[in-house]
Write a structure and sequence with these properties.
alpha+beta, 35% helix, 2 strands, two-stranded parallel ribbon
Length: 130
């Protein structure tokens, strides 16, 4: 499962998703207690020299690519990558574009919100699993 750093896709929030799964949506609110504590914990780890690898799936059904790679934070000890299932039907252009953008992020170059804009259109289907 991809990291739910910014919560699952907001459109999936409903009264049917409750309990532990429903609590994941608290990560979408940066001012929530769980989100604040999580961000503070990551800051402590990064200050201590821990290296993080954040991997997202290009077609995840529940977690956006932006969330799984924790796009808003920047640090030289964070390495971002994308998992691309060979069975998906994303055009090669998009696969290469996402890979290129993440390489730039790993070099410290800003993506100007491109991953955020691509996250929703790349979401996989909850019904077919593709």
């Amino acid at each position: 499962m991809a990291g739910v750093n910014l919560g699952p896709f907001p459109e999936l929030k409903s009264r049917w998703i409750t309990g532990s799964a429903g609590e994941l949506f608290e990560f979408s609110n940066p001012d929530s207690r769980v989100s604040t504590e999580y961000t503070n914990a990551l800051e402590i780890l990064l200050r201590a020299g821990v290296r993080l690898t954040l991997v997202g799936s290009i077609d995840d059904q529940l977690v956006s690519l932006e969330s799984s790679i924790f796009s808003p934070i920047t640090h030289p000890h964070i390495y971002r990558a994308v998992s691309i299932d060979s069975r998906i039907h994303a055009p090669n252009f998009l696969s290469h574009l996402v890979g290129f953008v993440l390489k730039l992020r790993n070099l410290g170059v800003q993506d100007h919100g491109l991953i955020r804009e691509l996250s929703s259109p790349l979401a996989g289907s909850l019904y077919t699993g593709e």
